[in-house]
Amino acid sequence: MDGENERPGFSIRDQSFSARKPEPGLYLVATPIGNLADITVRALDVIAGADILACEDTRVSQVLLSRYAIRRRLVAYHEHNAAEAGPELLAALQAGKSVALISDAGTPLVSDPGFRLVGEAVERGVAVYPIPGASAVLSALLASGLPSDAFLFAGFLPQKETARRQRIEELARIPATLILFEAPHRIKDSLADLAAILGDRPAAVCRELTKAFETTYRGTLPALAQDFETMERVRGEIVVVIGPPAAEAPPSEADADAILSGLLREMKPTEAAREAAKLTGLPRRDLYQRALQMKDGA
Questions:
Q1: Is 3.10.20.30 the CATH classification of the domain at 9-134?
Q2: In the chain, where are the structural domains located?
Q3: CATH 3.30.950.10 matches 137-242
Q4: What's the pTM?
Q5: Are strands 15-18 and 9-12 parallel, antiparallel or unpaired?
Q6: What is the pLDDT of residues 24-64, one digit of tens each?
């Protein structure tokens, strides 16, 4: 293979892999969130073979590349230079190049500016390929032991107390497990506000996931808030997972009868059953039969 067409290679232990050049398009490549072994072979192949490799911080990404003997020129793309670097990457994509985008850790576009680049690439008809892998959001959800059938990732809470409490009140109404990122110097205040507004919900605070000092604290929000308040200093990357609100008990037969009784004073049984169903969530057919019985009884 001549030098002009030779692609960079990478090695894992004693095996060597020759990276293939990906098809033109934007590749969103997930990278490890701590443990460098949590990288997929496909991710390494794309990182080593793409025409352009864009990353948040070249120093951070260079650690991963060095671990797998990948020698590449890195292009910085982050929140502060997106206005300048973005158009250059888009021009390369429209020229038929392959661009691999990686974040400092985890899956690109999750709490980073990559989504703007993807949106503009889609508008221009550029192919976009996700290369799945490590994710702090999903890792924390797995470790928490909390319901995973429905969950919402809400990013970081606002820094100021008033805005933070307002945001928590908005999240309180969502019938799903909540997942939040938080900075170590704000975790105590955030847990205190979460406990005050969300009450006795089960939760987990996951710190330094996949790293040497990985720790998961589990308990109710008030208990976790109290535990962290007594800690001298909190370090590391933190993900907070909060269980969904408890399901409301269905209205009792007496409650349904009281609602129907009031509605029947002004409505026919059909209309009363329809309105009662909206208010209680109970089957309209059952409420209609009950309304007929009450009407006859009266």
A1: no
A2: 9-134, 137-242, 253-297
A3: yes
A4: 0.77
A5: antiparallel
A6: 999 999 999 999 999 999 999 999 999 999 999 999 999 99
